[in-house]
Design a protein that fits this description.
Length: about 80
C-alpha cells in the first residue's frame, strides 16, 4: 500500500475509533449483563485496532475499528 494511502487509512481508523469511544462514553443507561459483554468486546476491538495501527497493519486495524463501530451501533439501537 502506498505511504499516503496508508497514512490516510490510519487517520480514518483513528477517527472511527474516537467516534466509537465517544458513543460508548455517551451511554446514559445501565447496561445489562449481555450488554456489558458487548461493551467489553467493543473495547477489545478498539485496543486491538490501535495495536495493529501501531504495528503498521493498517488493514487489520481498519477492519477491527469497523467491527467495533458496527457492534456499538447495534448496541445503541437496543
Amino acid at each position: 500500500m502506498p505511504v499516503d494511502k496508508e497514512n490516510e487509512t490510519k487517520l480514518n481508523t483513528e477517527r472511527s475509533l474516537q467516534s466509537t469511544e465517544k458513543n460508548l462514553n455517551g451511554i446514559t443507561w445501565t447496561p445489562s449483563g449481555d450488554q456489558r459483554l458487548i461493551i467489553d468486546q467493543i473495547k477489545t476491538y478498539i485496543n486491538q485496532s490501535r495495536a495493529a495501527n501501531t504495528d503498521g497493519d493498517v488493514v487489520r486495524a481498519s477492519n477491527l475499528a469497523q467491527k467495533a463501530r458496527l457492534l456499538c451501533d447495534e448496541l445503541l439501537k437496543k
